[in-house]
Amino acid sequence: MDKIDEIAEIAVLGGVGFNSHRDCENYPVKTPYGSVTAYITRINGKDIAIIPRHAKEVHIPPHRVNYRANIWAVRSLGVKRVISTNSVGSMRGHPAGSFVVLDDFIDFTRSRPSTFYDDNTVHVDVAEPYCPEIKEALKYSLNKHGFSYTEGIYACTEGPRFETRAEIRMMSQFADVVGMTGIPEVVLAKELGLCYASLAIVTNQACGMTTQKLTADEVTEVVGKAQDSISEIISETIRNIPETRKCMCRFAKEGACL
């Protein structure tokens, strides 16, 4: 394992249109998987590392995001808890701009490096993939500020194309929302014993749910309009995350190695 610096307590991983890292201090981090730029700020008395998932200058497509470098960098900064934001399409008629707190996932990705353990067999436990303590803090924040939200299952596809109508019909039988960036992030966080939870924002109805054509513009437009709300929710969540971890996330790798 690499050197751990006590730079931040919590990390925020942002998706499409996420711009909360503006005017923050740049902090480059070298990892075995490549370099990552974290943006260090302070929110509600806590040091926060913000990592824009798709980078700042050139938008990296979801299937090419360096997920291992991002999560390794998070752990290298001393972070124990990760709040992720993800743009999703709804398969349950959620209105655009509403929120979903994820409670499980189904993985339809196929070509992404999905583990830190290429040379060892590690069956990490993901029975409870999203940290219950962060989830409770997210839900408290959403309720406090009167934002509409549900909880649901996330289906992650490879991208970068949108899904077909047939794929959505199939996935809608067992998932609520669909996106392209939540996996393998959550699994990699588990492998490093980090707490991880995701706030998903509904940007559109999934393919076939309406007669309208899906576009990337509507995704960035919805997220752009919701930036202040997202920042408010995350700020309140950071305030209410317990100081001491009492969840089981840090034990996810125990008994996992063959």
From TrEMBL:
Pathway: Purine metabolism; purine nucleoside salvage. The record marks 163, 216 as: Important for substrate specificity. It catalyses: S-methyl-5'-thioinosine + phosphate = 5-(methylsulfanyl)-alpha-D-ribose 1-phosphate + hypoxanthine. Its EC number is 2.4.2.44. GO terms for cellular component: cytosol. Phosphate binds at residues 53-54, 181. Residues 10-239 form the Nucleoside phosphorylase domain. GO terms for biological process: L-methionine salvage from methylthioadenosine; purine ribonucleoside salvage. InterPro entries: MTAP, Nucleoside_phosphorylase_d, Nucleoside_phosphorylase_sf. GO terms for molecular function: S-methyl-5-thioadenosine phosphorylase activity. SUPFAM superfamilies: Purine and uridine phosphorylases. Pfam families: PNP_UDP_1. Substrate binds at residues 180, 204-206. Keywords: Glycosyltransferase, Purine salvage, Transferase. Catalyzes the reversible phosphorylation of S-methyl-5'-thioinosine (MTI) to hypoxanthine and 5-methylthioribose-1-phosphate. Involved in the breakdown of S-methyl-5'-thioadenosine (MTA), a major by-product of polyamine biosynthesis. Catabolism of (MTA) occurs via deamination to MTI and phosphorolysis to hypoxanthine. Belongs to the PNP/MTAP phosphorylase family. MTAP subfamily. NCBIfam families: MTAP. Homotrimer. HAMAP family: MTAP. Although this enzyme belongs to the family of MTA phosphorylases based on sequence homology, it has been shown that conserved amino acid substitutions in the substrate binding pocket convert the substrate specificity of this enzyme from 6-aminopurines to 6-oxopurines. This is Probable S-methyl-5'-thioinosine phosphorylase. It comes from Methanosarcina mazei. The lineage of its organism: Archaea, Methanobacteriati, Methanobacteriota, Stenosarchaea group, Methanomicrobia. The gene is mtnP.
